[in-house]
Write a structure and sequence with these properties.
globular; 33% strand; 120 residues; 2,3-Dihydroxybiphenyl 1,2-Dioxygenase, domain 1; alpha/beta
C-alpha cells in the first residue's frame, strides 16, 4: 500500500490555489470541479462538497493535523510569508528548536495548520 495524497478542505478554491502556488510553488495537476489535485500530493476539496459528503460541519483550526514542508532558505521563506498579499495567522513565528531545527507554524486561509522547517 502507498499513501498517494493528503486532502484538506477549503472555502475559496481560487484563493487556496494561489496561496499554495505563490508560497510553496505547487501547481495544479487536475481540477475536477471542487476537487483540485496539486503537485506534491496535496488535494484541495471544496468545503460544500465535503460537508455534503460527510453530513457534518467542518471545524477550522481544529489543530488535529498539520502539513509539513521543508525549506533550506527558511529566512527568505519567512520574509515571503510576512509579505504575503493577505495577513497570515501565525502559531509561532520563526524559531529554533533545542536540536537546532528552525521552524515556523501558521494557518492557511482556511485554518489548516502548516509547519515549515529546515531539513534535519
Amino acid at each position: 500500500m502507498k499513501l498517494k495524497n493528503v486532502l484538506i478542505v477549503v472555502k475559496d478554491m481560487k484563493k487556496s490555489i494561489a496561496f499554495y502556488k505563490n508560497l510553496f510553488g505547487l501547481e495544479v495537476i487536475c481540477d475536477n470541479d471542487g476537487n483540485v489535485i496539486m503537485t506534491e500530493g496535496l488535494v484541495l476539496q471544496d468545503i460544500k462538497y465535503w460537508e455534503q459528503f460527510l453530513g457534518r460541519a467542518c471545524i477550522p483550526r481544529s489543530n488535529m493535523s498539520e502539513l509539513y514542508f521543508e525549506e533550506r532558505d527558511i529566512q527568505t521563506f519567512a520574509e515571503k510569508l510576512e509579505n504575503y498579499e493577505e495577513p497570515v495567522e501565525y502559531v509561532n513565528r520563526l524559531m529554533t528548536h533545542s536540536w537546532g531545527q528552525q521552524v515556523i507554524r501558521f494557518y492557511d486561509p482556511d485554518g489548516n495548520l502548516i509547519e515549515v522547517g529546515t531539513p534535519m
